Automatic annotation (TrEMBL):
PANTHER family assigned to the protein according to its UniProt record, in alphabetical order: PROPHAGE SIDE TAIL FIBER PROTEIN HOMOLOG STFQ-RELATED (PTHR35191)
Organism: Escherichia coli
Coiled coil: none
Pfam families: Collar
Residue ranges, annotated region (Disordered): 134-156
Superkingdom of the organism of origin: Bacteria
All residue ranges annotated as the Phage tail collar domain in the record: 24-71
Name listed for the protein in its UniProt record: Phage tail protein
Ranges annotated as spanning the membrane: none
Amino acid sequence: MLLDSSVFEVKNVGLGEGSALPVGVTVPWPSATPPEGWLKCNGAAFDKLKYPKLATAYPSGKLPDLRGEFIRGWDDGRGIDAGRVLLSIQAGMLEKHRHPVVANDGYDSKEEWELAAIFRRAYTQGKGLDGTSAGGTLIPSPTLHTRGSIGNTGGSETRPRNIAFNFIVRAA
């Protein structure tokens, strides 16, 4: 769904002169062109003499590049994302997780076990070559399969559902 940017007028949304929003605040904007007094957060350098209040918020004279990025709240001592500093960039990451590998006995049964369990348990099914099971050992079997596959679905990144907005910053 695309939003019609023609319905947004700066005077109607309180982003113009006299705005209650302080210089340096970043907001999502539903249009490709920011309103007067605002700049795109596209990593560009800005004139610190022309925008002295903005230079207070961004002393480097460069705006953050938020194109295609998500903003994350600063940890500020909470311990969820310890060690981060304001305006720092963080690479993507997947949380550590497991994909169990299962094996089956190769017969027409529907029995499957996690591979780790095969090496831990004593089995009494008697399906090994010698028809016995010994505690904590694996009975060799020409039909015991210890291979598996892990499904690979998805794309080139991990992301939540989202809507594209232009991040802009109040410059004056």
